Amino acid sequence: MSAEATAILELAERLAREAGQIQRENYEGEFEIQTKSAVIDLVTDVDRACERLIVEGIQAQRPGDAILAEEGGGTDTPGAGWRWVIDPLDGTTNYAHGYPRFCVSIGIEQQGVATVGVVYDPLLDELFSAVRGRGARMNDRPLKVSKETRLDHAMLSTGFAYDVHSSTDDNLDHFAVFAKTVQAIRRDGSAALNLCYVAAGRFDGFWELKLRPWDVAAGLLIVEEAGGRTSDFSGQGPCTSGLESIASNTQLHEAMLEILQR
Q1: What are the pLDDT digits (tens) for 91-106?
Q2: Using a CB cutoff of 8 Å and minimum separation of 24, what contacts does 97-102 make?
Q3: Phi then psi for 20, rounded to 5 degrees?
Q4: Which residues sit opposite 83 in a β-bridge?
């Protein structure tokens, strides 16, 4: 690992923990909730406080880096060597309802290639991280995807886009087929954590439509570094845009693609 990548990882981990502290302190408390693109697309003042902390922390240490953040903080400078892709609070709807499944997600690209990923669950104090070519970890434990080879024995995870009320491209058809095929499906509202759970072997696979780069920038790398496979629904990948995302333990990838391509 280069000295610069090491420094970036340490900075990302520190900022993720500090943002997580804000989330813990305000969890199930009083905070402002607003809507964005749809009535189910929420943002809170906790999201904004976490993003401000992360963006200011990056700018103080690495002022030349580009920043793409969900709530619009930072500057996505074209041509920058390093780019930070930030979801300051992934699982905002969960957070707003007091449902304990949310996290901080920070992915960092070097020359357009995902290089460092950090996801922090502040309630469980689980810090997932990866550096390209160096493996993935949860706190001090190396991560490895599951060894499951049978789709009917698999537990998968997914979610639904914010336009699910109005769009016919709603993932419900895929959900119905998988529900009749696999052992179990979980849908708990945090794509970043779902991806980390694939990396940890807790889930055997994950798929979702219409995510955004900040939802997947860290998690896809963490899956890959834990020995998993990521792609879009055609099998090409990784899908860094998030528009079509599939992640698996590698063993089940082709079987999942076969269903998603129907």
Answers
A1: 999 999 999 999 999 9
A2: 98/27, 98/28, 99/189, 100/27, 101/188, 101/189, 101/190, 101/193, 102/23, 102/189, 102/190, 102/193
A3: -60, -35
A4: 66, 109
CA–CA separation, 115 vs 257, rounded Å?
Answer: 26
pTM of the predicted model, to two decimals? 0.95
Which segments of the chain have a pLDDT < 70? 1, 40
How far is Cα 103 from Cα 24, in angstroms, rounded to an integer? 10
The Cα 66–Cα 84 span in angstroms is 6
What CATH code is assigned to 151-260?
3.40.190.80
User: What phi, psi does 60 have (nearest 5°)?
Assistant: -70, -35
The class of domain 3-142 in CATH terms is alpha beta
H or E stretch at 231: strand 229-231
Q: Do domains 3-142 and 151-260 have the same CATH topology?
A: no
List the domain boundaries for the chain: 3-142, 151-260
Q: How far apart are CA 200 and CA 203, in angstroms?
A: 8
Q: Count Cβ atoms within 10 A of the Cβ of residue 41 and give its class: 0-12 exposed, 13-18 middle, 19 or more buried.
A: middle
Rounded Cα distance between 116 and 129, Å, is 7
61, 74, 96, 99, 225 from 245: Cα distances, Å: 32, 26, 25, 24, 17
Q: Which residue has the tokens 């998690």?
A: 219
